[in-house]
Structures are given as C-alpha cells and as structure tokens.
Amino acid sequence: MPDLREISVDRPVSEKIEEMKAKKCLLDGDRKAYNEISQFTIKRNKEKIKTLRKENKELRQKLHDLHMKDEAVINKALKDKPTERASLKNKTGQEAITILDHKVSDGMRLLNALKHQVAVKEKQLRNMQITYNEQQQASFLAITTDKKESTEAQDSLKWPLVLENLEKEIKQSLNEQEELQSMYRDAQLSKENALKVLKKHEDMISHERKKREIQLQELKKEAEEKRMLHDRIERRFNAQRPSFQQQDETASGEKQVLSGEEQQQKISTYEEAFRRIKEATGVSDTMEVVSRFENQGATTAHLEELKQENEKQISLLREEKVKLQKTFEEMKYTGETKLSRGQRMLEEFQEKLQEEETSRAEIENKLEKMSKILLQVKSGIDHLADRLSHLKTPKGYTASTKLSPSSNEYVLDQLALCEEKLLKLMDDFHDVDLEKVQKQMEDEEFHINIESRLPAYNTRVKLSTQLENIYAESESSREDEPEVLSRSAIKKISQSIIDAKMKKDMPRRRKKTK
C-alpha cells in the first residue's frame, strides 16, 4: 500500500490551497453554527433561570406562608410554654410534631419508670405494713398471753375452792335429784292409787247403771205383759160393751140429779186418767193400779237414795281430783326448778356414761381380737403337738400333773413339750445332710406319684439281675442285692419324662402361635 506522504507530496499546491480554503470555510460554518447554538442555549437557559427564579420565589413564599402557619399553630399550642416554643422556632409542623412525639415518648418512658418505682415503693410499703401488722399482732398476742398466764396463775389458786364448790353443788344436786325422784315416785303412786279409786268408782257406777238397765228391762218386759193383758181385757170389754151400755142407761136414769154436761166432763176426765194410768202401768184393774202406785213410791224412794249416794261419791271424787290436780301442779312447778340442775347433772353423767361405754366397747373389741388370737395360738399348738405326737418325749422332760385340755396351763405344757421335741430333733439332725435327705424324699414322692398315675392292668414284673447265676445265689444274697428297675418302672419314668417335656414345650408353642 502506498504511503500518504508520498501521495500528498505528489499533489500540487493549488489543490492543497483549495483544500485548505474548503476546510477553513467548513470550520467557519461550524463556528458560526456553534455560536448560534450557544447563543440560543444561553437565551433558553436565561429564560429557564428566570422562570425557575420566579417559581423558587413563589415556593419560598409558600414555604414562608407554611412556616408562618406552623409557627402560629405552634405558638398557639405552646402559648404557656415559652422555652419549648423557642426551641421549636423555624421548625415545620411535621418536625415540631416529631420533636414533640419524641418528647412525649421520652416523658412516657420517664412516667412508666416513675410508675414502676412507685409500684415497687408501694409493694415495699405493703410488705412493711404487713410486717408491722405482724409485729403488732405478735406484740398483742404476747401481751394477751402474758395476761392470760397471769389470770390463769391467779385462777389456778382459786381452782381448788371452785372444785370444792362444784363438788358440793354436785352432791347437793344429786341429793335434790334423789328427793325429786322419790317425790316423783310418790306422786306416781298417788296418781296410780287415785286412778285405781276412780276406776273402782267408775266400775261401781257402771255396775249400778247396768243393774238399773236390767231392772228397767224387767219393768219394760212386765209392762209389755201387762199391756198384752190389757189388750185382751179390752177386747173382752168391747165384746161385752152392749150390756154395759144398758147398765149405764139404767144408772143414768137413777142419777138424773147431776147435770148432763158436768157428768159428761167427769166421765171424760176419768176415762182419760184411767187410760193414761193403763198406758203407764199396763194394768186394767184398780187394785193392781193402787198396789203398783204404792210400790212405785218405794222404788222412787230407793232410786232417790241411790242418786244421793252417787252424787255424794261424785262430789268426793271431784274434790279428790281437785286436790290431786293442785298437788300435781305444785309438784310440777316446784320440781321444774329443782329438776333443771338435776337434769344438767344427769346430762353430764350421761355423757360420762357414754364415754365409759365407748371405752368399754373398744376394750371389748380388743378382748375379742385377743381371744381370737389366743384361740388361733391354741389351735396352732394343738396342730403342732399332733404333728410331733409320733416322736418320743425326751428323757430330761418331766411331765406335769394331768390338766384339763381347756385350761391355759395345758397349752403351756404342750408348748414346752413341743419345744423339747424340736430341740431333740435339731440335735439328732445336726450331723445329717439335710439336702440329701430332702432329695431322697422328693424322689420317693416322685416315684409314688408316677405309680399312682399308672393304669391297673400295667403290673410290675420283677426280673433278676443275672440270669446265669439265678439258681446259684442264695436267699440272703438276693436280699442284699439292690433292686433293679423293672419294665413297668422304666415305663413310668419315661412317661413322667415325656410329660415334663410336654409341659415345657407347651408355652414355647403358644408363644410361636402368638
């Protein structure tokens, strides 16, 4: 590529001049355009500055107005607080509100702290008040206890006299109670006697009444018989009346001296009287009527005598009743005051009796328990003596005299005997291996248990140990040889082993199934 310097050198000067002129013209145009643009921008910026200054002035005026309004509100709100008003000078409303909020929050925090301090102080004051009250109560209790101790010490000197007086009053009240009880018994006896007398008189009066009723019934019966007789006579009279009328006519002819009306009146009165007499007595004959009237007078006199006697007895009984009532009232009102003390003492003695009865019941319960325990001990000692009865009595033991089995000495004797036997047993088994003996006993029990389980047809066959020498051995050697297990014994042992294994395997199978 060719070099530019070489190309520029190769061009002519006129072209260079023309080029330079063109560049100059371009530069002048650019300068003019730049000047015009800069003048336009300056003009536009001046106009913008003017408008901004105007807007700034308006905003400043608005801000001033707002400041004036906020200052007026603050001055009005903080009229009585010049220091706070001076501190909030040249501040907006929002700034003043935030400052006041901060101050209020600081005041609230301070108020809460002061409230907390006040609550703590009040709590301390309450605690101090409680302690003060407790101290006051303690001092008051100490003073009262001192006073009580002093009064009790003074009273303790008086108690013997008070007890003596109380004992005297108790004895006096007991005597009064005995007197009242005797008076009450006498009153009861007099009352019973009076009731017996009254009952006797009532029985006598009722007997007399029954007697009079019987007599009245007899008289009524007799009157009824007389009435029936009168009816029969009247029927006969009515049958014979015509003949009587003829006789009356003849008699009226003879007695013409009397006037007819008077005679008629007399006849009517006589008839009426006779009729009433007949009705009253039940008799038609005049002689019977006269005898009846005579007898009636005697009966009335007898009844009057009985009436007077009964009235006298009734008056006497009433007087006795009044006297008994008076004595009863006197005993009642005089005995109530005496009985009050006796009743009080009786209640106290009843309370003591109740306490003694409760203590007696408790003692009885204890006695029953102890007796039950004693019976159990006796039965246990008897059982132990029965279990040890096969043992011989030791040589050093001396038996006491024969005692009754129900006595306590017999139980003590049995207990001492059992103790001696047990001590002898312990001495005998001192050198014996008890574990071995116990194992042997368990084996024997095991074999007995197995044999009891075998059926009846499974019999045991004894076999000799050595078949070769069976005839050569003697009887003594057979007895000395140990017994060999038979087939049945082997069966029993194997069966017991199988049963034991089955019992052991059963829980395992159950666990597996679960």
UniProtKB/TrEMBL annotation:
Polar residues bias: where?
240-250
- Provenance organism: Octopus vulgaris (Common octopus)
Biological processes, Gene Ontology terms: cilium movement; outer dynein arm assembly
Occurrences of domain ODAD1 central coiled coil region (ranges)? 164-388
Any coiled-coil ranges, and where? 42-69, 111-138, 207-236, 300-373
According to the UniProt record, where is the region Disordered? 237-265
Its cellular-component GO annotations read: ciliary basal body; ciliary rootlet; ciliary tip
- The name this protein goes by in its record: ODAD1 central coiled coil region domain-containing protein
Query: Which terms are listed as keywords in the entry?
Result: Coiled coil
Q: Which PANTHER family match?
A: COILED-COIL DOMAIN-CONTAINING PROTEIN 151 (PTHR46518), OUTER DYNEIN ARM-DOCKING COMPLEX SUBUNIT 3 (PTHR46518:SF1)
